[in-house]
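Wait, mind explaining this?

_____
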Amino acid sequence: MDALGILWFVLIGVLWAGYLFLEGFDFGVGILLPFLGRDDVDRRTMINAIGPVWDGNEVWLLVAGGATFAAFPRWYASLFSGFYLALFLVLIALIFRGLAFEFRGKRANPAWRTWWDRALFLGSAVPALLWGVAWADILHGVPIDARGEYVGSFFDLLHPFALSGGIAFLLLFALHGAVFLTLKTTGEIRDRARSAALRLSWPASFAVFGFLAWMYVHAVAAEDKGVVPGIVPVAAVGAAMAVSWLLHEKLDGWAFAATGLAILLLVATIFANLYPRVLVSSIDPAYSLTISSASSSSYTLRAMTIVAAIFTPVVLAYQAWTYWVFRKRIGRADFEGGERG
């Protein structure tokens, strides 16, 4: 395999890990909105906790998709042909989620805001679930033929292993969002977020453990364990389990780091198990797309590497600056009495 092909496989894994880490707490806050927001002021506070950063976090998805298209065009084509309906649902959910951020505060009418709150909840929960389903499918295998074309239906993507991945992602993102709110908010909302995180920590941990254990059993049965070191999935489960203790000790920052680490290690486990393939065929292992068979030309990969080396540090510095500027905690007092938000 071309070394640049392997490099871009790793870089795409990093991009997806970064996206799911950052967008994960955005999704989590949206998922928790109807449960932690007891009135309009609570919900406005929660929305504004992620308001300055959610759109920047979504840029990681665009970059990951663009990098996949440029570096592995056959992988990109097979994904969009096979996952078309699922990706369409994700796109619709993300569109309504973005509209909710923009239009919720345009009118003070309670029915108007309730409608957009529901859109924000579904626009967060649906992608969180379907991203887990999609990555579980990519690893488990989907019906693609010798030409790399998907020959199954939408419901072929919804087998038990894929659904276990979706549930693991959904619960882990909800936990990630709850811990983020303990860092970003004050007062009663922070207390409720801490209580929610404590209640979610063990279900999320067991969901992650179940998904990773099933992944290992499947890999052993198929004799395709990839290159994943055992410490990686074990550490992912351990990080998720540590959240409860860290919150009890009032170590909110470390608890957020633990949920983030669990997400990063979960993605690392998926990519390490996937290597050297990029998409597994459930029809015949010989039909699976690999790094070498799906990658672009060496010239394209070299050009992409040069561009990434120049602009990636700039983008990371800008996003870090954004988080630093909007680091202040917020609470009900910041929004009581106002009409917008």
Observations:
- The domain at 3-144+157-328 is CATH 1.20.1630 (Formate dehydrogenase/DMSO reductase fold).
- The first strand starts at residue 277 and ends at 279.
- The mean pLDDT is 90.
- The two ends are 52 Å apart (CA to CA).
